[in-house]
Design brief:
Oligomer: single chain
Number of strands: 0
Order of helices and strands: HHHHHHHHH
Radius of gyration: 20 Å
Distance between the termini: 53 Å
Structural class: mainly alpha
Shape: globular
Number of domains: 1
């Protein structure tokens, strides 16, 4: 218990934690439905291509990709403006000097978290070889680099993976889903584990305060969703551990710019490492 209190203390080493958000399941469903609708609209374009790495060679693919990411960003920020204490800053979109502080912390945090992510990659490769006697397949979008994309396609790919993806995914998985799950788990715990004393007649019961156990539960569940959403089974462990690192940093700092920076660096290194290996062949 003492360890838990130190992990998510009221006065952490970096920045005071964010106030609890008031997101609901409706907010989560609306974002998912919007992304799904755009996917359905783009299905005719994707259906006659053999593989996503081939589709990714077309500008229209990145236009579709950017569209659903921008809609996700707009929706989450709109919901945060009314559902969070302090507006969008309540979801971690800090302003002023906190932006640069978050970026600097993010650069250090991804360096610390990288061994954990590398461990996930080693586990994935080991499992693939042990069960299916093959190497873990490469990320579908990164395989597009093997087709020697034109400069404009590479620029679109870089912008999407290193700017829009970190923004949209961190706002959704950490800012929205993780925040919502933490409150849900707190309410469940308050209802079944810590019964509230009866209040005055007609008085609404207060929501249960979020405890460290609720935060950890939200981190693990949202990280699993984060990994599953990428639809890359061979990378599930790697993405799950990355999600845990991102989720912990978010709960620890309350600054989403830290997570966005970590995510951007991870995607950027993955993209340009793949590109460097491809150009050597």
């Amino acid at each position: 218990m003492l360890f838990h209190k130190r992990v998510f203390s009221d006065a952490p080493l970096l920045i005071r934690p964010r106030d609890p958000n008031k997101f609901s399941i409706v907010h989560v469903v609306v974002v998912i439905a919007a992304v799904f609708l755009i996917g359905v609209l783009g299905a005719p374009f994707l259906s006659h291509r053999s593989h996503i790495s081939v589709v990714a060679m077309q500008p229209a693919f990145w236009l579709l990709d950017s569209t659903w990411r921008l809609i996700t960003i707009a929706l989450v920020l709109t919901f945060a403006a009314t559902a969070c204490q302090g507006g969008i800053q309540g979801v971690g979109m800090k302003s002023g000097g906190s932006v640069w502080r978050g970026i600097l912390i993010g650069l250090g945090a991804i360096a610390v978290a990288w061994p954990l992510v590398f461990l996930g990659d080693v586990i994935s490769v080991t499992v693939e070889k042990a069960l299916w006697h093959r190497n873990a397949p490469q990320n579908s979008l990164l395989k597009a680099v093997q087709h020697h994309p034109a400069p404009e396609i590479l620029a679109l790919m870089t912008f999407s993976l290193c700017v829009l993806a970190p923004l949209s995914e961190e706002l959704f998985f950490r800012g929205l889903v993780q925040s919502y799950l933490a409150q849900v788990l707190a309410n469940i715990r308050g209802h079944f584990v810590v019964p509230q004393s009866a209040g005055k007649f007609g008085e609404k019961s207060r929501p249960t305060a979020i405890a460290p156990a609720d935060r950890w539960g939200a981190i693990f569940i949202s990280s699993a969703f984060f990994a599953l959403a990428h639809a890359e089974p061979s990378a599930f462990v790697t993405l799950f551990l990355l999600g845990v690192a991102l989720g912990y940093v978010y709960e620890r700092t309350g600054n989403l710019w830290t997570d966005i920076t970590m995510h951007s660096v991870f995607n950027g290194v993955s993209l340009f490492a793949t590109l460097a290996l491809q150009t050597r062949r």
